[in-house]
Write a structure and sequence with these properties.
Largest sheet of chain A: 3 strands, antiparallel
Largest interface: A-B, 70 and 70 residues
Number of strands of chain A: 3
Oligomer: homodimer
Strand order of the largest sheet of chain A: 1-3-2
Order of helices and strands of chain A: HEHHEEHHHH
Distance between the termini of chain A: 50 Å
DNA sequence: CGCACCATGTAATGCGTTACATGATTTT
DNA sequence: AAAATCATGTAACGCATTACATGGTGCG
């Protein structure tokens, strides 16, 4: 799947693996992420498959960089993938919920600690979504007003992240209340 | 991680790989799932590591079954894992959001189709959460009232699934409205 | 008669992470 | 002087999926 993240970005403009990573960090981290090592290997297989081409560029006072450009075949593959609707729900895996599900043996206080810690983490996350994104998305639009329609979709995805965090906070608060009231105290 | 799903269930009572799969389907599918093939191979490695032991049981008119029992070492490992709090947020991957993020080239109508289809899927999912779970969780409690405290946590996790679906529906409705109003119609 | 359920496993492949390896420039 | 940024890659490993392989019982 990382394949389509890379093709998606390269469809806007040619860039290096390193730059792709920063784009991912600043805009898709919300729903997709990858390590540099995987980005580089995936770019390599994409080039072997003919979906991108690359050329080295020498820079002064900086390391050489390999710039990737999407090909016609790559663009076709991307568009065909985008057009195909998802007809099944995606499966979720959450270590946190898994732990909570089986957590009874560790006792009430330990469970509350876990929940409160998670509450703080999500509060922090919500804050970052609201700050960072308004900054970068607005800047891109000033530079490239052609992307106004793309930006509508970017904002929807950002909004999803915000709603998800709000939901998490609501649920965690509910969970803390329930545990406090319904679980018996740890026996000393 | 599947390791801890299996140990978690085996900590209640011994059972087979096949039974573990049905437990996963009916109660943890919400936040963790696995194919039978993976369950069997993971049980094997757990046995090699000494966290579970197994014995074959012959049945009349049914295939033999291999019953797994958690060991003291397995229980210790599980408890130690449960006690360790998660200090970082989990990363999310969503093919659906990824597609939406890059979807502009497929045009307004195709995007709306994707969103509406997803809306139906989540509406269906919400319904199943509300139906199925009230059934099975209630039944277990009638059979084993000792598990009342465990059931509090099970219900919290179920509630998370419900809230997540509600959030999804809210967002999808918002997304449909935004796309209808802010994206220009496809050029014919 | 065909399908679903019970029941267990192996092999091949794919996707992703961690660790290893290198090295100059700019910022603190 | 140390840390962060720029920049690219390989190798080993782990987790998960798909496909393959087998076979009896019960139900409609």
């Amino acid at each position: 799947m990382l394949k389509y993240v890379l093709l998606g970005f390269l469809n806007y403009q040619p860039m290096t693996g390193y730059e792709l990573e920063r784009h991912i960090q600043s805009s898709t981290a919300n729903f997709w992420h990858a390590k540099l090592s995987q980005i580089y290997t995936t770019l390599k297989t994409l080039e072997q498959a003919g979906f991108v081409v690359s050329e080295m560029e020498s820079q002064e006072g900086r390391p050489d960089r390999r710039i990737y450009t999407i090909t016609e075949a790559g663009r076709n593959d991307l568009l065909q993938w985008l057009a195909q609707p998802l007809v099944e729900l995606e499966t979720v895996k959450s270590t946190f919920l898994l732990k909570l599900f089986f957590a009874r043996p560790i006792g009430k206080q330990a469970i509350l600690t876990h929940l409160r810690l998670h509450y703080d983490l999500h509060q922090q996350q919500l804050k970052t979504y609201r700050e960072i994104h308004t900054k970068t998305a607005g800047q891109i639009l000033l530079d490239h007003p052609v992307l106004a329609n793309d930006a509508v979709l970017w904002n929807l995805v950002r909004r999803f992240g915000e709603l998800r965090e709000l939901m998490y906070l609501e649920w965690l608060q509910e969970a803390i209340d329930v545990v406090e009231q319904q679980l018996p105290g740890d026996s000393a």
